[in-house]
Amino acid sequence: MVFGRTDRRKQNAVTPLALKLLVAGGFGVGKTTLVGAISEIKPLRTEELLTEASRPVDDTSGVEAKRTTTVAMDFGRITLRDDLVLYLFGTPGQNRFWFLWDELAQGALGAVVLADTRRLEDCFAAVDYFERRGIAFTLAVNCFDGAERHPEEAVRDALDLDPGVPVVMCDARERESVKEVLVSVVEHALAGGASRSPATV
Amino acid sequence: MTGDHWYDDAAGPVVRPYTMTRGRTRGPGEDRLDLIALVVAEDFLTDHPDDVHAAADRTLSPEHLDIAGLVRHAPQSVAELATGLDLPVGVVRVLVGDLIDGGYVRVSRPVPPAELPDEGILREVIEGLRAL
User: Fold this and answer.
1) Is B95 part of a structural domain of the chain?
2) Nearest chain A residue to B84, by CA
3) Which residue has the higher pLDDT, A100 or A25?
4) What is the least distance, in Å, from the CA of A77 to any CA of chain B?
């Protein structure tokens, strides 16, 4: 246990402030990898093997190596200071689990929309979701090996993103890269400040 | 799996999850506990660090005691408790509600959804991330 040696009385005096960021994007785009690259705990999640029945929904063409899908949620934790903890929640990648999103989005500081340029259309729904709710998000393009690189402008145009939305190229496996993505989200939330409505659902 | 067990993890829980809450799907409180609401041990628990079982009310279930045991060491979010104990979030919410009622724990709520953390906190988050 990370906090094993924490003095009990002191711990009672300081209860950390907990904040959360969401990680959204299409099925198999690397959300779990991204959370795992930066979380201090092993990403916690419930996974279920793809079944015959789910195949028509889970189109895995272009992501052949992925055999399981996250059906509940992943989450990771980053302790920024004794009194400040950031939780990352990966939203379910399949449309039939959208009912879980509203709860996750409640009170979120902002979101990462992770995109794969081979299947850019997979993140339309997430972009739309956060735009509608006025939740600050950064579009992070996960630069997979073997995926064609697209210039930022092409991605921005294809998704018809608001000019203010940051677009970041990233490697979801690299901690430093993921750090940049998260900083970008919070900076965007900060810049939006009073002009955007809070993340109520 | 060893022995002659005919079930395994893939078969799902042997005890239906909401049995642990005696069928309740809502906690005593009106508000649902947020996934990142931090559950903090009250002094009663921390003052009896090795004696929760003896100190605890007899009405508490083993799962209640598991939660009490975890939060005694450090505050835990509802999401962490659920995964730590391999229980559905809905079950943890009900059990934590019972522990709040019993005065064993309190909950530190996250920033209310209708408000955003102030600029100072956002700047601290950015600094903290950069310093990782």
Assistant:
1) yes
2) A44
3) A25
4) 9
Phi/psi at A158 (5° precision): -60, -35
Spatial separation of the C-alpha atoms in residues B128 and A153, rounded to whole Å: 30
Chain A CB within 8 Å of residue B53 CB: no
Q: How far is A160 from chain B (nearest CA, A)?
A: 27
A24's enclosing H/E stretch is strand A17-25
pLDDT tens profile A184-194 = 999 999 997 43
pLDDT at residue A45 in the model: 58
For chain A, domain boundaries: 15-195
What separation in angstroms does the CA of A197 have from each of A70, A86, B10, B122? 30, 21, 43, 16
Whether B17 maps to a domain, the answer reads yes
Using CB atoms, which residue from B34, B110, B114 is nearest to A200? B114
Specify the fold of A15-195: Rossmann fold (3.40.50)
Residue of A nearest to B48 (CA): A8
CB-nearest to B113 from A12, A15, A198 is: A198
A40 C-beta neighbours (distance < 10 Å), count: 11
Q: Do B129 and A104 touch (CB under 8 A)?
A: no
- A20-61 pLDDT, tens digit per residue, is 999 999 888 899 899 999 999 877 754 433 333 344 445 555
pLDDT by residue (tens digit) across B16-63? 667 777 777 666 554 668 888 999 998 877 776 555 555 555 678 889
- ipTM over cut 0.85: no
- Domain count of chain B? 1
**Partner residue opposite A198 with nearest CB, options B46, B116, B132:** B116
Tell me the pTM: 0.77
Give the contacts of A44 (CB within 8 A, at least 6 positions apart): A74, A75, A76, B79, B80, B83
Q: Which residues of A touch B78 (CB under 8 A)?
A: none
